[in-house]
Write a structure and sequence with these properties.
- With about 400 residues, this protein is an alpha+beta fold.
- It has three domains: about 10-125, Orthogonal Bundle (Butyryl-Coa Dehydrogenase, subunit A, domain 1), CATH 1.10.540; about 125-235, Butyryl-CoA Dehydrogenase, subunit A, domain 2 (Beta Barrel), CATH 2.40.110.10; about 240-385, Up-down Bundle (Butyryl-CoA Dehydrogenase, subunit A, domain 3), CATH 1.20.140.
- About 50% of the residues lie in helices and about 15% in strands.
- It contains twelve helices and twelve strands.
- It has helices spanning about 10-25, 25-35, 40-50, 70-80, 85-105, 105-120, 240-275, 285-315, 320-345, 345-350, 355-365, 375-385; strands at about 125, 145, 150-160, 170-175, 180, 180-185, 190-195, 200-205, 215-225, 230, 275, 280.
- A four-stranded mixed β-sheet has the order 1-4-7-10.
- Helix 4 (about 70-80) packs across helix 7 (about 240-275).
- The structure holds flavin-adenine dinucleotide (FAD).
- Its cofactor is FAD.
- Belongs to the acyl-CoA dehydrogenase family.
- Pfam families: Acyl-CoA_dh_1 (PF00441), Acyl-CoA_dh_M (PF02770), Acyl-CoA_dh_N (PF02771).
């Protein structure tokens, strides 16, 4: 029986089947993917075959158009594998890069990118961040200049997850660099799909502290000619598209973080119960018991926050404040939990090869990616100050 007002027995059945499936699809391979720095194409195809890459996508492209909570369950289970790299890679592909294509509902883009992405035959990446423009998109310098029936793209994108293996990139570009009164800041942006194999696309992998299987790369577009029908939506509507989709991105990050925390707490539980000390086990000492109690309580509260934000989103609202709260709270809690887990596992947790160390490295990524905590605080704080709660 389900113990959540948001989840039905069907969701729980789905959870059990995803859990079993990811235990064979991801867990045995993930160490090797971490070493290789990417999720291989064979794994993407398996994930596509299982239907995991199209849970939220429409049936017109082979997706199963499930409710959002099916995806929340999937993301929690993805987090529960304990590997942040594949979790990030799959989230970016299935819920971030391809989400823009699903919303666009464009037959050309569906055929070329979204349908093959749902099948796991083509891997997607999302390229927004630049060396000179991170949290502040107004500094974005990558340009797409119209030339007949093509755009010519020039610029550099940094921290592109899946960059190493992606077959296509959803890229934020500046299509209207200037107005009479000066630079257009965050407006004048558009989203273009760029095939990774086009002449002028250069990919350079970067080493990161965590999420090592996510294929993070710097991508250079050096005069890349992109057919104009690869534009997503209308020209200059990129900022609006980004602002809408960022809410889902934050929700996805939060749901995956919940699963990561479940894994972390379970690893810690097993360690404390198994580690003998002072005539019993560490699990019998009051200090770890109280620490676990606090963290488990916070995790339970975080789950309610995330599920409530998902429920609001499912009602057709765009709950920007709740999505930001969910992302902020879960990803920061995940860092605290990972740190406590490492500490309470002593030297075993401090070994570089330990799961505790990997979980801690991975947790740090999530408070920066998809919007740093400080930006989330800014959004939440300003929204609260604007609105009376009474
Ligand atoms: C592991 C990882 C994966 C990523 N994957 C992708 C990807 O696939 N595609 C992509 O496009 N990008 C990706 N990013 C980039 C990510 O979106 C940016 O890191 C993020 O937007 C912040 O930009 P920045 O790193 O340039 O930080 P900056 O904008 O330089 O900011 C630096 C720091 O300043 C503080 N700060 C910034 N703005 C504010 C503010 N308004 N108020 C208060 N403090 C502030 C924050 O502490 C922030 O961390 C990824 C990042 C990481 C770490």
């Amino acid at each position: 029986m389900t113990r959540s007002v948001y989840l039905t027995p069907r969701h729980e059945e789905f959870r059990a089947s995803v859990h079993a499936s990811l235990a064979t699809l991801i867990v045995p391979e993930a160490e090797a993917w971490e070493r290789d720095g990417a999720v291989p194409h064979s794994a993407w195809r398996m994930l596509g075959k299982e239907g995991y890459l199209g849970l939220l996508h429409p049936e017109r492209v082979g997706g199963s158009a499930q409710d959002l909570f099916t995806s929340v369950v999937f993301l929690e289970e993805l987090g529960r594998t304990g590997f942040g790299g594949p979790r990030a890679a799959i989230s970016v592909h299935a819920y971030m890069a391809t989400h823009y294509l699903a919303v666009a509902d464009d037959p050309v883009l569906d055929r070329a990118y979204l349908a093959p992405a749902v099948r796991g035959e083509r891997v997607g990446a999302l390229a927004i961040t630049e060396p000179g423009a991170g949290a502040d998109l107004s500094g974005m310098a990558t340009t797409a200049e119209r030339d007949g029936d093509h755009y010519v793209v020039r610029g550099v994108k940094s921290m592109v997850s899946n960059g190493l293996t992606a077959d296509f990139h959803v890229v934020a570009v500046r299509t209207s660099p200037h107005t009479a009164s000066g630079p257009r800041g965050a407006t004048g942006l558009s989203l273009l799909v760029i095939d990774a194999g086009l002449p002028g696309v250069g990919v350079e992998p970067v080493r990161t502290l965590g999420w090592r299987a996510a294929g993070t790369s710097t991508v250079t577009y050096d005069g890349v000619r992109v057919a104009a029908d690869r534009l997503i939506g209308r020209p200059d509507s990129g900022f609006y598209q980004l602002m809408r989709s960022l809410q889902l991105e934050r929700l996805v990050a939060a749901a995956a973080a919940l699963g990561g925390m479940d894994r972390c707490l379970e690893d810690l539980r097993q360690f404390l119960n198994g580690r003998r000390a002072f005539g019993g086990t560490l699990a019998q000492l009051q200090a770890p018991v109280h620490r676990i109690a606090d963290l488990a309580t916070e995790l339970a509260a975080a789950r309610q926050l995330v599920h409530h934000a998902a429920w609001l989103y499912e009602q057709g609202e765009l709950p920007a404040t709740e999505c930001s709260m969910a992302k902020l709270h879960t990803t920061e809690l995940a860092c605290r939990l990972a740190d406590a887990s490492l500490q309470l596992q002593g030297s075993a947790g401090y070994l570089e090869s330990s799961a505790a160390a990997r979980i801690q490295r991975d947790a740090r990524a999530a408070t920066i990616a998809a919007g740093p905590s400080e930006v989330m605080r800014d959004l939440v704080g300003r929204a609260v100050l604007r609105t009376s709660a009474l």
